[in-house]
């Protein structure tokens, strides 16, 4: 029996955690054994789980990051124990996802990976693997990552360093260790990120774009009665936003500005806010805490008249795909790979920061009616983003590199 080992910050939680979990489920259905090594937020899984370190390791690693800008360079003992587990399992393929997140020592891990003969598949969900610090640089238009990071303008952003800027040292360290593996295939989840990777120090590796997949049996058009009754939304035109964490880069300020301009028959619902953020919302924005309940998320998507994603930097957001699968048109800023899932029949693309443009296309959807888009959205999602099709792409890749 072939064995797959995946490594990610979380398991069965958030977009990357669900992707890793569902890849594991898919390979199990196809006769493989599946293991997932993770740093935190354990949730139920069909795969055999390997916890990397303990909560204390994460705290110490976070402190090292804050004080010394050494993210990905803590958790030494925890990573050594992971390596012992890898030796014990002896997987046929090692599939990496997010390696940032205060749980893994990248130098120790890659020193081991460079010496073994196991093929590596690395899905890039963001830009951290080839920058000296940040996970995204689109918001500020920084291009230092192409040649050499230094004097990082986002030192105080995740993974935050309060005092020291090691972006130059981190860039060269990553370049050295991440290019040390002999058998590696890089998987950007959007064509946009694929183009970026081709300008980075990872460009020498084989690369294949595989879009994110979603569970179209869960994310499908649902009855909207429960959500409308629960939040007293009868007769309201609902504008929905969903993300795991909200800040101005994800469009929170734009939603607040939009709330000043919509009429009394419209309401905004934002899912994924913190309690503090909810307390500071305008009256016409309903704030919902982050939820791991995918069925409830599907109900929110189905209830909404339009899904709005005014993100200022992104790779290939699964929220767009989930909305489409639920039959709800998507409006997004012209950002990264966010635009790649939208067609003229399924939504609209607006320039970053153009709140007036958002209002115009929202009014277009209101005038035409959501029902003019629903079938197109659902068919688009089924054709391109069903998880079984996308994870079949991964299984084909695993088998091809093994052969």
Explain what the structure shows.
It contains 14 helices and twelve strands. The protein is α/β, with parallel strands linked by helices. The protein has two domains: 3-213 and 387-402, Rossmann fold, CATH 3.40.50.2000; 225-384, Rossmann fold (3-Layer(aba) Sandwich), CATH 3.40.50. Helix 3 (76-89) runs parallel beside helix 4 (106-113) and helix 4 runs parallel beside helix 5. The radius of gyration is 21 Å and the shape is globular.
Secondary-structure map:
Blueprint: E1 3-10, H1 14-29, E2 33-40, E3 48-51, H2 55-68, H3 76-89, E4 93-96, H4 106-113, E5 120-124, H5 167-178, E6 184-188, H6 191-197, H7 225-230, E7 237-242, H8 252-259, E8 266-273, H9 275-279, E9 285-289, H10 294-303, E10 306-309, H11 318-325, E11 330-333, E12 347-350, H12 355-368, H13 371-384, H14 387-402
Parallel strand pairs: 1-2, 1-4, 2-3, 4-5, 5-6, 7-8, 7-10, 8-9, 10-11, 11-12
Helix pairs in contact: 1-14, 3-4, 4-5, 11-13
